[in-house]
């Protein structure tokens, strides 16, 4: 039975061609030299090259401001708990992901104040509202570039311009966009772009991080005080303030290979292909009864993430039926209880289809056919 993987918003599959084989070959080659000093120097050089590749991907000027962590969740927590303190005020969207909201909510008890930008059911927000939410204690605007529920792409340039005008930190979680949507930091003026290696960057698990401005990194004092214990000669300690101990250099090398693959293809070319798949998927879904497409009914300002509300049907039952046919989708709340409550999908959640560069038009056609048959059979049985 053919396997069709449509859960790339959770983790990408497949990865770039021969990713794990090439990681294995690289480290076998390094170890075969039997020269520990040479091994360390090569690893350091590879890590610095990877920082440069990430900066090239988002048009950021300072390679040394790339900070590696084990995942994007840790990066978000480091940033928010590093720059926000008692009596600060932060602005988020009303349908923000729980990964961002959990650390913010934990700080509310210590005096942090928040405001929420209202969002429509399709995930759109009105940027003109943001200046009205700003007060003298406002320190940051924190947003996901792409919703992991609706797939809606937020207008980063307009928001970044507002943050620059009012001298606010602009924190962008690009976990669901980087690698499939172009980001130019010279245009958006973000103070942090958070990335996840194992999603649309097509890299291995266990590697993430952020690209931060000088202003952001200089103000992350709470993390700096923790990291004063780290020896300056540790592997990958280019940023002694923020990178704790020895880095995951195996994961970083895998990310290095994936970034070279993506940059060689070109993000615009990747977006063109995923837009084609998105258009086909949405157009076919519009012909199926008993489901509602969450987000925009086209590929304008939306990513390759399409979530479905299945009326009276339990999305878990549909998900399991699709698995029987070898089709892997996502199901549930996707760590976004706010969005699911807004669209009345709580607590059962949604069925989510998300694809990447390696999916094909045939994958979409087969998945649509199976989904249509399953919905009809469940309804009438």
From TrEMBL:
SUPFAM superfamilies on file: PLP-dependent transferases
GO molecular function, one term: catalytic activity
Sequence ranges assigned to domain Aminotransferase class V in this UniProt record: 4-364
InterPro entries in alphabetical order: Aminotrans_V_dom, PyrdxlP-dep_Trfase, PyrdxlP-dep_Trfase_major, PyrdxlP-dep_Trfase_small
Pfam family, any one: Aminotran_5
Protein name stated in the entry: Cysteine desulfurase
Organism: Clostridium folliculivorans
């Amino acid at each position: 039975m053919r396997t069709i993987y449509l859960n790339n918003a959770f983790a990408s599959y497949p990865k770039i061609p021969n990713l794990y084989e090439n990681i294995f070959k690289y480290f076998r080659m390094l170890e075969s030299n039997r020269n520990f000093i040479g091994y360390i120097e090569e690893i350091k050089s590879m890590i610095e090259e990877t920082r440069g590749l990430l900066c090239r991907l988002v048009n950021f000027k300072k390679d040394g401001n790339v900070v590696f962590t084990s995942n994007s969740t840790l990066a978000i927590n480091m940033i928010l708990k590093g720059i926000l303190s008692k009596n600060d005020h932060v602005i988020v969207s009303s349908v923000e992901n729980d990964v961002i909201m959990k650390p913010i909510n934990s700080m509310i008890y210590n005096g942090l104040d928040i405001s929420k930008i209202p969002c429509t059911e399709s995930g759109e927000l009105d940027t003109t509202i943001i200046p009205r939410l700003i007060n003298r204690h406002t320190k940051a605007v924190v947003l996901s570039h792409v919703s992991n529920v609706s797939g809606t792409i937020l207008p980063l340039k307009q928001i970044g311009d507002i943050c620059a005008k009012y001298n606010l930190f602009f924190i962008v979680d690009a976990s669901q966009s980087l690698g499939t949507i172009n980001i130019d930091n010279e245009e958006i003026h973000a103070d942090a772009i958070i990335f996840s290696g194992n999603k649309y960057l097509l890299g291995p698990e266990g590697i993430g991080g952020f690209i931060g401005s000088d202003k952001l990194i200089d103000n992350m004092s709470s993390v700096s005080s923790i990291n004063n214990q780290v020896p300056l000669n540790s592997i990958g300690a280019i940023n002694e303030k923020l990178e704790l101990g020895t880095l995951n250099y195996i994961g970083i090398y895998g990310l290095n290979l994936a970034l070279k693959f993506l940059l060689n293809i070109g993000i615009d070319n990747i977006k063109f292909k995923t837009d084609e798949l998105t258009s086909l998927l949405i157009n076919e879904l519009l012909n199926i009864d008993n489901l509602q497409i969450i987000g925009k009914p086209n590929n304008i300002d939306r990513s390759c993430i399409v979530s479905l509300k299945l009326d009276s049907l339990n999305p878990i039952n549909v998900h399991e039926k699709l698995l029987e046919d070898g089709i892997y989708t996502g199901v549930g709340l996707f760590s976004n209880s706010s969005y699911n409550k807004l669209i009345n999908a709580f607590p059962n959640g949604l069925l989510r289809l998300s694809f990447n560069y390696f999916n094909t038009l045939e994958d979409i056609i087969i998945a649509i056919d199976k989904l249509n048959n399953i919905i009809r059979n469940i309804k009438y049985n």
